[in-house]
Design a protein that fits this description.
Elements: H1 2-17, E1 25-37, E2 50-62, E3 65-69, H2 82-86, H3 88-93, E4 95-96, H4 104-110, E5 118-122, H5 128-131, E6 141-145, H6 146-153, E7 175-179, E8 183-184, E9 191-195, E10 204-210, E11 214-220, H7 226-229, H8 240-257, E12 260-263, H9 267-272
Parallel strand pairs: 3-5, 5-6, 6-7, 11-12
Antiparallel strand pairs: 1-2, 1-4, 2-3, 8-9, 9-10, 10-11
The structure holds zinc ion.
Length: about 280
């Protein structure tokens, strides 16, 4: 009996850890951009240095449905209209510089899809540069940590500015999948949500196992840039201790699976990655 249980456990591990057999395509796309002081991303390092960073969005074509991971800055902040939507104060700290054509709906169109084709929208968290266009997907299933939903609706005071409530104020009737930790989206290890709280209360990253490329870990804001992987504490964190733990977690999984770790706002790595064709 015990042996049978062991065999079952081994079979389960093999399924969830092996690169999935499913044919998956993963695009890393620029869904926006931000001009900001680097010190927001690397606490006490390069404070005062102005940088321009990409705001990535991801599209995953999976046999079980089309997925979008993060939706970028709200479309209304495009083409020099940052302050019209976010207001002067916010745009003073984080200025959007993207064109309207870079926003997720038009990025999907370039790939031959409409927003209606998207079955799942997964959010790393509800900060303004990640949840911005949630309202473009009223018919999708929205995958987010329950703790993040609570934080988004009533953030800690020191995190309040980064949650733009009008991004998601009319979404309470949307179909939310409220997660409480890791979640294997299709039960086959191909697309796995990872709990990486710290940047925010309910931050999550995404592990995608591809046939040719292998394991890609989309860290989102758990790791903004290479500096953070090397030990520089990320700025704008809800909980520094949890944040550093999540960075270690992602690095350990990357090393165990000989995978690739994608940062969220690193202009150097983003510039080196491929955005014209999908990773397979
Ligand atoms: Zn971000």
């Amino acid at each position: 009996m015990k042996f049978k249980k062991l065999l079952l456990a081994a079979a389960f591990c093999a399924t969830s850890l092996s690169a999935a057999a499913a044919d998956i395509q993963l695009w890393q796309l620029k869904g926006g951009s931000l001009d900001l002081d680097k010190g927001w991303l690397t606490a006490m390092k390069d404070v005062g240095t102005k940088i321009s960073v990409p705001v990535p969005v991801y599209v995953i074509k999976h046999p079980r449905g089309l997925i979008v991971f993060d939706t970028g800055n709200n479309f209304a902040t495009s083409d020099g209209n940052c302050a019209n939507y976010w207001g002067q104060g916010l745009c003073g700290a984080f200025k959007t510089t993207q064109t309207r054509d870079e926003i997720i709906d038009r990025q999907l169109k370039k790939l031959g899809y409409s927003t209606e084709d998207v079955k799942y929208v997964i959010y790393s968290h509800f900060h303004l540069d990640h949840v911005g266009n949630i309202k473009m997907f009223p018919k999708a299933k929205h995958v987010v940590q329950k703790e993040e939903l609570k934080a988004a609706w009533w953030p800690e005071k020191f995190q309040r500015a980064a949650y733009v409530v009008k991004d998601y104020d009319e979404t309470r009737s949307f179909d939310f999948m409220e997660l409480t930790g890791d979640f294997d989206m299709f039960g086959d290890g191909s697309v796995v949500v990872l709990d990486t709280k710290g940047h925010t209360q309910g931050h999550q990253s995404l592990m995608v196992n591809l046939k040719k490329t292998g394991t890609v870990l989309i860290s989102a804001d758990a790791i903004y840039m290479a500096d953070n992987e090397k030990g520089v504490i990320p700025g704008i964190t809800w909980n520094t201790n949890e944040s550093m733990r999540s960075i270690d977690r992602l690095k350990n999984i990357r090393d165990a699976k000989n995978g690739t770790l994608w940062y969220s706002h690193d202009p150097v790595q983003f510039g080196q990655n491929n955005h014209d064709k999908p990773y397979e």
